[in-house]
Design goal:
577 residues, alpha+beta, Thrombin, subunit H, Porin, eight-stranded antiparallel barrel, six-stranded mixed sheet, 12 helices
Length: 577
């Protein structure tokens, strides 16, 4: 029991540490999280690093798809040559004049060097038509009225450089695995077994470098390079040359590391596509996976990339965000309130936790009378009021549980369980619409002695299953599930090892109650239904096993374990990551 308590303390310590790393955003101002979300614009380029398959990667760069959450500022330049370091990449950005090209795109620069702000209006953040913006852009007085609109958008311009390296074909990847396994088998005296080659395509590693435009760039453009209708030809020429020769700055923000792949299952495999993708299509998949995986990592670490909005409605909770902000089902948001700390400072504090249940389609422009709301359900915290700030706080959708005992006898023991929210897992590829649908696996260890029997029996039990959670009340959930698994008993009698196994179906439910927003007490009701005869296993010379039918049931009252079936209730601790 002391060992079990130590494990619980360790899990609590780890989860608290993980939580502490993600509670405080990176870019808070005076401790207050802003309630307004300023849409960011992304320019994605590939780093020409002379790595393996770089020519295929460069060709695939034209197929990059910027997530809808971000404004697409991609340019004709799809890749830049540079060494794999933030400083060298920044020099590459400057030498290729990417900042100039991005500003020219924002302000629709014409062949004569004139700028205008129709794109600012088109991107839908201001109550002005494109024609209004074009007319206003042509005069000094008009520009003064609207230039703040351009500044707030352009100052959220980013360049994301994808350094894709260590790329291997699946053939090379499998060869590498076989080589390692061959060495391992030779050193251990075991028979070498080649890996099963089920996929084709490519996989690799990615470092994503993020840069943000220097906020002084737009002031310089407004003050020194903006061409007006009443400018003379001489002044126009000077302003054109000044812009062409200028070097606008982009500052390094951060880098993240992840992995990527452009793979598919081979023909004949269960998950193989009906039509195999071409080599080019697989590299396009690899590049876009690199981008999407990097975005997930950046949104976790970089506060300005997190969606922020105000709670617009309650019962149910609703907000004016949706597809345009890249929402996915079961995406997590913190609801924040501003409070005064003991130093008299106003800071933002987590008040509640909500998740997306229904996503509104706001990708098309709607009039103010037909604003659709995305819906949310609450999983933790206090009552939510309209006007509170919501902030995107992605998690991994992972739940880890540890617990044990059986209050009613039967199949007990100490269990370790991992579960994954399917909606969170699939959000990178395609969001599903079912909340709290999870796949899980668990392993349980138990030991027992029986009256009149001198043997000590060790039990190992595994199961794989699926569950569906329901939050009828905040801070409390109920999760029915069904699982398939097996249990194996081992013991030694008269210096001889024995074993006996059975398969089972487990039907039940677990309930959680929050200790903190991501730590819960959990109680599980399991009902084990055994099926098939018991069997024992023998190990062959090649380390494979052979099963032998025992012609009686695992719960046979004479030969088996009559108590190991039926209802069992476990208690434990669950952590969400």
């Amino acid at each position: 029991m002391k060992k079990f308590n130590s494990i619980l303390v360790f899990v609590l310590f780890v989860s608290t540490g993980l939580m502490a790393q993600t509670v405080v955003p990176q870019t808070l101002k005076n401790g207050i999280i802003p309630s307004r979300y300023n849409r960011n614009a992304i320019t994605v380029v590939i780093l020409d690093n002379n790595g393996s398959y770089i020519s295929d990667i460069k060709k695939a760069a034209g197929g990059i798809i910027v997530p809808e959450k971000y404004d697409n500022n991609n340019l004709d330049i799809r890749y830049i040559p540079a060494e794999s370091s933030s400083g060298q990449i920044q020099k590459g950005i400057e030498s290729n004049k990417l900042a100039n090209k991005i500003l020219a795109k924002w302000f629709s620069r014409k062949s004569g060097g004139e700028f205008e702000m129709s794109l600012i209006a088109e991107r839908g953040l201001y109550n002005a038509t494109a024609d209004d913006m074009i007319k206003a852009s042509a005069s000094k007085i008009g520009l003064e009225k609207i230039k703040d609109a351009g500044k707030s958008l352009v100052n959220n311009s980013y360049i994301q450089v994808l350094d894709i390296r260590n790329v291997l074909s699946m053939q090379e990847y499998y060869d590498k695995q076989d080589a390692a396994n061959r060495i391992s088998a030779a050193s251990s005296g075991k028979e070498f077994k080649p890996v099963e080659r089920t996929q084709n395509g490519w996989k690799g590693e990615v470092t994503s470098y993020l840069y943000k435009i220097d906020p002084t760039a737009i002031d310089t453009l407004y003050e020194k390079m903006w061409i007006y209708d009443d400018d003379s030809n001489t002044i126009r020429k000077e302003k054109r040359e000044l812009f062409v020769n200028a070097t606008f700055g982009f500052d390094f923000v951060m880098s993240v590391n992840t992995s990527t792949d452009g793979t598919q299952y081979n023909p004949g495999q269960l998950l193989a596509p009906k039509v195999q993708l071409t080599k080019h299509e697989l590299f396009v998949k690899l590049v876009n996976t690199a981008l999407n995986q990097s975005m997930v990592a950046l949104e976790t670490k970089y506060e300005p990339f997190r969606v922020k909005t105000s709670v617009y409605a309650v019962h149910p909770i609703g907000a004016k965000i949706g597809t345009k902000e890249g929402l996915s089902v079961d995406q997590r948001f913190f609801v924040l309130e501003n409070i005064q700390n003991n130093k008299g400072e106003i800071v933002s504090k987590r008040h509640a936790v909500v998740r997306v249940s229904k996503i509104a389609n706001n990708s098309v422009i709607a009039n103010t009378e037909s604003v659709s709301l995305s819906k949310f359900y609450q999983t933790a915290g206090k009552s939510v009021d309209a006007g509170m700030t919501m902030q995107q706080r992605n998690d991994f959708g992972l739940g880890i549980s540890i617990g044990g005992g059986s209050l009613l006898g039967g199949m007990g023991g100490i269990y370790f369980k991992a579960e994954e929210n399917i909606a969170v897992l699939s959000s990178i590829i395609h969001s599903i619409s079912i909340t709290q649908l999870k796949v899980f696996g668990s392993y349980t260890l138990d030991s027992k002695t029986y009256p009149g029997d001198n043997n000590t029996y060790a039990f190992g039990r595994y199961q794989l299953g699926i569950s569906k959670g329901f939050y009828f009340f905040r801070n409390f959930s109920i999760n029915p599930f069904i699982a398939y698994g097996g249990e194996k008993a081992t013991w030694n009698a008269n210096s001889t090892d024995y074993n006996m196994s059975t398969a089972f179906i487990n039907i039940g439910a677990y309930a959680t109650i929050n200790i903190k927003h991501n730590i819960q007490l959990v109680a599980t009701a399991n009902y084990y239904l055994l099926f098939g005869n018991a069997y024992y296993e023998t190990t062959n010379s090649d380390d494979t096993t052979t099963s032998h039918d025992l012609s009686y049931k695992y719960d046979d009252p004479y030969y088996g374990f009559s108590d190991r079936k039926g209802l069992a209730i476990d208690l434990g601790l669950r952590i969400e990551l």
